[in-house]
Amino acid sequence: MKDSGVEWLGEVPEHWEVKRLKHCIDPDRPVTYGILKPGEPDEDGMPMIRAQDYSNGWVASRQILTVSRETEAPYERSRVREGDLLITAVGAGIGNCSIVPACLDNANISRASCRISVNKSRVSSEYLLLVLMSRPTKTAIELTTRGAAQPVLNNAEVENLITPLPPLREQMDLASELLSKLERFDEQENLCSRQVEILQERRSALISAAVTGQIDVRGLVQEAGEQ
Fold this sequence. Notes:
The protein is extended and about 75 Å long. The longest helix is centred in the last third of the chain and has 44 residues. The strands form four sheets. A four-stranded antiparallel sheet has the order 4-10-7-8, covered by helices on one side. Strands 6-5-9 form a three-stranded mixed sheet. It is of the alpha+beta class. Helix content is 36%, strand content 17%. It starts with a strand and ends with a helix. The chain is built from six helices and eleven strands. The mean pLDDT is 92.
């Protein structure tokens, strides 16, 4: 292990690097935000990804807003490619992030998102996503934007986020292991949520049956009173 030089990160394995995010991106496609004023939807236009489209998992592609080609054309620089990362840079969901899927390759983004074009020769998109989702990174973002009435994360602040960087193969292995565990956690969470719903439904049915006289609970009430 070695000292990372970053107080909140502490020690890291000796063969890891610690870089700012700007050293992890494609030099030809810098961090950028997107369309400022999308105007009215245009069915024949270009898809424009909004922060709400990925904040809680990706919405269906048919729900992605399309804007006129005339509106989108000046923002060609902010078009996304499959595997790019998006991070919410404005508002209450600041710091939310996701990976651009294949179905949205060449779409554009709104002002509320920053595009992070990963340098795939050095960095795994999945690994970097997990770094951005981590509690330390979330805390760093919160400290950066604290006190603002409307939180805004600018491009330079995104570029300067700290990234612990193992070798590429190790990044891929770590991401695979962690994403597999997160998937199992999500499955268990969904199962527990469903069980809670069923118990609430049965509770409501039991109360309704007692109130309407379908079941006789007088003996149980008397017993509870005696206890």
